[in-house]
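Can't paste images in this forum, so I'm doing it all in text. The chain is below; anyone willing to post the predicted structure tokens underneath?
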Amino acid sequence: MKSDISDESKLTKYPVLDEIEVPDNILENWQVTADLLASVANVPAALIMRVHASDVEVFVASRGIENLYPRGEKTPLDTGLYCETVMNTQHKLLVPNALEDPAWDHNPDMKLGMISYCGLPLTWPSGELFGTLCILDKQKNVFANKTQPLMERLRDSIQLSLASLYETSLARMQRDEAEREKQVSETQLRAFYELDLVGLAITSPNKGWIRTNDCLCKMLGYSEEELRTMTWTQLTHPDDLPADTEQFDQLLAGKIEGYSLEKRFISRNGEIVYTQLVVRCVRRNNTEVDYVVSMVEDISDRKQIEAELAGYRNHLEELVEARTRELEEANNKLRELDRLKSMFIASMSHELRTPLNSIIGFTGMTLQGLSGDLNDEQRDNLSRVYKAGQHLLSLITDVIDIAKIEAGRIAMTVESFSLAALVEDAVNTMKPQLTGKGLSCVLDIPAEIQMNTDRKRLLQCLLNLLSNAVKFTEAGQVKLIVREKNGIVTLAVSDTGIGIAAEDMPRLFEAFERLDTHLRLKAGGTGLGLYLTKKLASQVLKGDVSVESQLGEGSTFTLSIPKEIPALHNGASN
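Text version of the structure:
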């Protein structure tokens, strides 16, 4: 309580205890003290001042005609009163003659003619200020002889009264606070007991119901009066009774102070109520059980949900098992399809390319005149057969390569070679097409770049990009720019051809996709070139292909690949 009193005074100039009232009997004693002091000191005014939050009050004043300070008069603080200095310093103040003292010759008491002053501080036992005990005179006075010792003794007497008053008030406030806390606790307990959230009960050591709340009565279907004629064992499910009574007996024996368990009650209409039971006991003199407090939570809904979840879980396990079987069957089918694809690739490679190579070879020999002279019509027909065979062989090779890539079975051979030499081979291969269309080929290759990757697949990609540029360029040039930075080599093939529309860009690298242009029939092709290049670049050469194009101005296809691929990639590509 002392700390509470102090906290309330923090916002005032002085720490005060305004809430403590001074009873009449003490005021009467203080009045006698003031009168005695004024008489002995032979002064017009002896005062007991009490300080408040914003002013100081004449609390007790000596009775006499010359005393100009009426009891109850209040003066605001910070006005320069004598007693303010006493309270500020907590020490005695003696002013023999304010007229001769520049520090006091303008203080408010001068208006009343009080030019001399002697005052002592008064404090509560806890250190807070009560005020001052003081005497004032209209003439110069040093308050010598017995006056100051008498003031000190009277001050001590007043301090004793303040100490007694403080202790009495403190005890009363503590009692009041305890009573308030008790009332709040009882109110809270009553409100909790009446809540319709959980069942609450007080039972006897003989298992009888003493008191129950409405929630428990509704849960069991009985009124409180009916429950008082029964025991809780009568309403407990037979299968749960042994576990409950065993715990209850241990509680009565003092082995435990409480317990918790799930328990089923049987309601009035015969329905089973699933509950979570929490039990605690209150003992008499810390030994014998006086009564038992129980909290009963209805968990029937939770139990129903748990049962439904268990059913869902079991059903889900059955679905997972069935789905696992389906996936296993699907995997077996996929493995069979993979085996058939491998057989198809091998068959295509042997059964189609072998006779086709023979056709192309013998046709070429015949065109060379090794089988005799040919007339113009025969030579034209055989040339058509030769070109168609070459086109068909290229198509079959592309299809087989794509099948191998998608099956993860394409062979990959890493070797060291000169990039300039590979570019030269590619350009030489494309010279007939470049010359046939009157296109120039511009090369921009830096100093020797030594590659360590799959030469065959890199050459295949570069040829596809050069061929694509030549097909769709009617005039101008094809340019190849090679750069190397941080281990990444880029080969950019640019042309001055017809370009690609923005809406056609997403379809550019799809299989069998040929864009609709006026050169479509003349350019020919199967629509597999760029698709295969993209696949080879990403899955074999570990790089990528990108494109930039402006319709009517040309395109630039950029192949970006690492300069070196570790030798461990030799063999089938994954």
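The two ends are 82 Å apart (CA to CA). Residues 300-367 form the longest helix (68 residues).
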